# Entry
Amino acid sequence: MTTKENAKSAPRPRGRPRAFDMETALDTGQRLFHASSYEAVGLAALTDALGVKPPSFYKAFGSKSEFFEQVIERYAQAALALDEILLPGRAPVDALAELLESAARTYARDPQRRGCLVLEAARGPDGDDSATHARRVANQRRDRIREFVARTHPERASAVTDFMASTMSGLSASAREGMDESRLLDVARTAVAGLKAQLGMD
Amino acid sequence: MTTKENAKSAPRPRGRPRAFDMETALDTGQRLFHASSYEAVGLAALTDALGVKPPSFYKAFGSKSEFFEQVIERYAQAALALDEILLPGRAPVDALAELLESAARTYARDPQRRGCLVLEAARGPDGDDSATHARRVANQRRDRIREFVARTHPERASAVTDFMASTMSGLSASAREGMDESRLLDVARTAVAGLKAQLGMD
DNA sequence: CATTTTCTTTAGTGGTCACTACAAAATCCT
DNA sequence: AGGATTTTGTAGTGACCACTAAAGAAAATG
# Structure
């Protein structure tokens, strides 16, 4: 309480102020990576798009893969919010059906950024940092599905989660290859029919 | 009939004979690409594994992407032969169930070469030659599935084929992320339950 | 034998990759 | 004003990428 301090504004740091907004940069990076892929977006293209020279980028984010880590964490938080779909008490079949259909719609929505940024990045080279981060984020979301299903169907939770994970990967891949929204929705609905066989028809 | 000619052996060509076997090279290349990916196997690693220097490789195959084109054509011919599964007269649900379960087994069989070489390559950069070739080969196989289904269910053929394509991509992706054979088989069987809803229970 | 043809070898090519050493510029603190 | 601190722009780094020019070596042909 010695000097003025507001809840929001951080006290101005000491040295030269950063000349660009990191959130905007993450957003631009997300668009770039989603449009093609982590590997396909070189540092030159990235820094050009951000309007930032490489040394500034590295001061701010550490490395390309650390930048990407922040990007996918942001993306996973924003896209397909599980909280709004996996509501406690809701019938799993209904919730998972909505999740698959939402995925179908989301993956085809923007023709320039098809599929799921996380799931596509998870297919990168096995030892790569970007793929490792993406798989970690994907697995966190799968854990939430498993926990949700386990509340009502503890015995089927793992099998159902595997099926959801595989189906979402398939939807993302198909979206990337150009399958449009209505076809993806048909795929999702056929998958839901499979889910009903696992979880009961309700 | 002027000189000796056998049905099998081509008459020795004129210049210095090739010092390696192209079929063996394609086979080795297939293993390498399948173990990691087209992009991850550099020309140096490739030619080292083949025991062949770059200029010989280029004389024989033209380019890395042309070599890969031959590799995936070979692979598509050998793995998961559709002729043996999509038998005319067979109930589509049965045939497609066998196809999905065979895929699950095949994709997990060799822990060092998980998933489908073609489907994984089909996810490469959009403009890339390797991805273009892989998608062409994948679509040829999807056409055969569509034709097979259309014989008995012409109205559902496209939707069923989309679901098969998406599910196979999902199985391949899951295999790549480490899902073992029994889990992949469970996923395949759940997908078959979805197929039955589309094609009738039989 | 010499010539022609084809492949193999040696030794590179330019291009792109992620990343950085260094010094100038912009801010805060005393 | 005079440091102290942090970010900036300039200008590169070495490593790897797919690929190749040039010359030597191995075969068939004449």
User: Anything to note?
Assistant: Residues 129-150 of chain B form the longest helix (22 residues). Residues 27 and 126 of chain B are 26 Å apart (CA to CA). Residues 12-17, 19, 42-44, 54-55, 58, 63-64 of chain B lie near DNA strand D (CB under 10 Å from a C1'). The two ends of chain B are 59 Å apart (CA to CA).
